[in-house]
Every structure is written in C-alpha cells, then in structure tokens.
Design goal:
By secondary structure, the chain is an alpha/beta fold. The protein has helices at 31-42, 58-71, 118-135, 155-175, 184-191, 207-221, 224-241, 250-269; strands at residues 24-29, 46-49, 80-85, 89-93, 98-100, 111-115, 140-145, 179-181. The strands form 2 sheets. It has a 5-stranded parallel β-sheet with strand order 2-1-3-7-8, with helices on both faces. The mean pLDDT is 90.
C-alpha cells in the first residue's frame, strides 16, 4: 500500500554552481532577504545585507546596487548576490518624477503609486545584474520572491503583485547566464502551507520556516566543503552563545577556553572565516 503523502514537497534542482565556505555574499531586497542574510552571517559567511535599508521593489534593488558599487573597493568581490523581491509597486515623488526607495513617512499626496509590469520587472533586474557584473564578472545571482503577503494591497492584489515578480524573474533566468531562481515563495505557499509556520501576525514566516528555507537553500547551493565547515562551526557557535548559570565557575572557564581553541583551529583551516 502506497504511503499517504502528508505534504506537497517542492522539488528543487541541485545547482551545478556552488557556494564555498565563508564566501562573500550580497543580500538585497525585502525583509525576507534581511532574515536570510543574517542567518548566513551567523553561519560564518562574509555578508553584506541591505546596506541602505530594506528594499521591496526591483527599482529600489537596482538603486541599492548602484549606490553600493560607487563605494565598493576593487578588492571586494562577491561570489553571489541574492536579490529578493517583495512587490512590483513603486512610489514616484511628484516633484522630481523619481522612484523613491523610502517615503520617509512623508504625506501620501507627494507621491504617485504605480505598478511595474512583467517586462519592467525583468528590465530592472537585468540592469541590476549588469551593474554587479561590471564589478564582479563571475558573480552568480540568485533571484527569490518574498513569501510575505501585503495586506495593505488586499490579498488578491498582493497575489497579482507576486505573480508579476515571479514572471519577471523567470524571464531573467531564461535570458541571462549565471542567474538562478530559488523557490522561497513556493516553499512557504506550497510546502509549508500551515499557519504554524507563520509568525503571530499570520503574514511573516516563523523562525522555524526561515530555518527550513535556509536548509533547503544549502541543499541546493552549498559545496561539500561548505557542508563540512558548517558541521564543525554550528556546534561551536551554539556553545559560544550559551549563557551559563555560573559564568565565574572554573568549569565554565575551561569550557570556554576549549571552545575558543576549537574556533581557532577552524580559523586556521578556513583563513577567511571570521565571527
């Protein structure tokens, strides 16, 4: 008798391109990108996460990359960039006609809200990727769509917005080499479609969901040596985060010294590792 399926599992092809231990990574986009970026920072990767704040739409993602590269030195090279799109809605400042990245709580009457179509989403992403490759010719770009719904648009409009982003990202993946799509949106909405995987606001993924998506990301993109590094580092990270009941005890002092010695051994094996 065939076993009953209790979950719709999202099949993700394993990437031929791999992320090495302690690689330098760039995360730009929605608050989902921020959550994922911080997770990678904790795992010993050298990450830059939304250097000018959270960005939700493709135009603002491009703006971030433009500003970042203006201040980036020649010796800073990213192995990969993860661009996470949240919405196709943009806000244009009436006075200048420019798309703003943050309305800074100014009155709504100063702005005109518009939506990008599929072609425009693709064009903005392609422009951002071309900018990255001017500085980092070998960079791999991973596109994702944030699973977080936008209640203020209404849930139907939120779905239309996500669909536009998904179609735009798909066009870019088909058009450009070295660009892949990671299905974070599908993992939440198809595989983890239960409210126990959501935060109390019932919109944002819970930490358990973010951890699961991170694991699936690693299964897709991590090199074998990255998996080995994380197996060694994650128990040490947990040990360093431990808050003892008696921090002044000799037992804890010896425990901490042993842990730091193990971290130092790991650093010798992986010279780019820092925490």
């Amino acid at each position: 008798m065939k076993e009953t399926e209790l979950q719709t599992v999202v099949d993700i092809p394993v990437s031929a391109w791999k992320i090495k231990p302690c690689a330098r990574l760039l995360f730009v986009g929605s608050c989902f990108a921020a959550n994922m970026g911080e997770r990678f920072r904790e795992d010993g990767f050298r990450v830059t996460v939304n250097p000018y704040g959270v960005m939700y739409n493709p135009v603002s993602v491009r703006h971030t990359i433009e500003r970042l590269l203006q201040t980036t030195t020649d010796d800073t090279s990213y192995a990969a960039a993860v661009l996470t799109l949240g919405t196709n809605h943009i806000y244009i400042l009436n006075e200048t006609g420019e798309v703003v990245d943050n309305c800074e709580k100014r009155p709504q009457r100063l702005f005109t809200e518009q939506t990008l179509n599929v072609t425009q989403v693709g064009e903005e992403l392609c422009a951002a990727i071309r900018l990255l490759r001017q500085h980092c010719p070998d960079i791999h770009v991973i596109l994702t769509v944030s699973p977080i719904r936008y209640r203020k648009y209404g849930f139907h409009e939120s779905q239309l917005s996500k669909a536009t982003l998904l179609l735009g990202a798909d066009e870019v993946v088909r058009k450009m080499e070295g660009v892949s799509y990671f299905p974070a949106y599908e993992l939440i909405n198809d595989e983890l479609r239960d409210y126990r995987f959501y935060a109390p606001d019932m919109l944002h993924p819970s930490q358990q969901a973010v951890d699961y998506i991170g694991r699936r990301f690693g299964e897709t993109y991590f090199a074998a040596e990255t998996v080995d590094f994380l197996k060694a580092w994650q128990p040490l990270r947990a040990a360093l985060a431990h808050r003892p009941l008696h921090p002044e005890s000799e037992e804890y002092r010896q425990f901490k010294e042993k842990t730091l010695a193990q971290v130092e051994e790991l650093r010798k094996k992986y010279p780019e590792f820092s925490f």
